[in-house]
Write a structure and sequence with these properties.
Elements: E1 8-9, H1 12-15, E2 24-25, H2 49-62, E3 70-71, E4 81-84, E5 96-99, E6 105-106, E7 114-120, E8 125-131, H3 133-138, H4 140-150, E9 159-162, H5 174-184
Parallel strand pairs: 3-6, 4-5
Antiparallel strand pairs: 1-2, 5-8, 7-8, 7-9
Length: 202
């Protein structure tokens, strides 16, 4: 019953890769209650850690893995990429993970920010990145590709997909945010809009 009650999204290009499991999970399913209902997977949110562990185990089980296969991060809006040799109980401070070790699950948490998943099907190398505006403008996407290349991936074979993320009409950021982004990335201007009598959206 629980498995059927936990829908998740997938990427068609990644679905076509043999022996690669992936999923984008939202709030539906899980055991968390109150503000965290119901599939909260963040250990840093103030939620009951037993609930978080159960939620992570549920999501991992749905894609065919046990909880001890997970490698994840303490995400800090950086452009640091961690190359992992397998599952890990430690949580390094970084915003992307890459591995060439079969059976390793890379876990990324996002709210408004974009999750990006990568795979080189031939080299069997995968990556996952958390791309907030600081990471995106700083080059987290490119850094993840470079870390995969260091393991033997080839950029012309890498398939990347952006998972569910917040949309412009729902993302009011205000003038300070807009200024900071445009100072770093002037080419981001087309992604800002300001509704009549409103504040900047991104």
């Amino acid at each position: 019953g629980v498995l059927m009650a936990t829908p998740f999204e997938t990427s068609r290009p990644l679905e076509r890769i043999e022996r690669l499991a992936h999923g984008f999970f939202g709030r539906r399913g899980g055991v968390s209650t109150g503000d965290f209902a119901s599939l909260n997977m963040s250990e840093a949110s103030g939620d009951d850690l037993n609930h978080v562990a159960a939620n992570r185990a549920q999501a991992l089980g749905i894609i065919g893995f046990s909880p001890d296969r997970l490698a994840s991060l303490k995400q800090v809006h950086s452009i640091r990429v961690e190359t992992v040799a397998g599952p890990a109980t430690t949580r390094p401070e970084a915003d992307a993970l890459v591995t060439s070790t079969p059976g390793t699950v890379l876990g990324i948490l996002t709210a408004d920010c974009a999750p990006i998943l990568y795979a080189d099907p031939e080299a069997r190398i995968i990556g996952a990145a958390h791309a907030g505006w600081k990471g995106a403008t700083g080059g987290i996407a490119e850094a993840t590709v470079a870390a995969m290349e260091a393991l033997g991936a080839r950029r012309d074979r890498i398939i990347a997909t952006i998972g569910p993320t917040i949309s412009g009409p729902n993302y009011e950021v205000g003038p300070d945010y807009a200024r900071q982004v445009l100072e770093i990335a002037a080419d981001a201007a087309p992604f800002f809009s300001t509704p009549p009598a409103g504040r900047e959206h991104f």
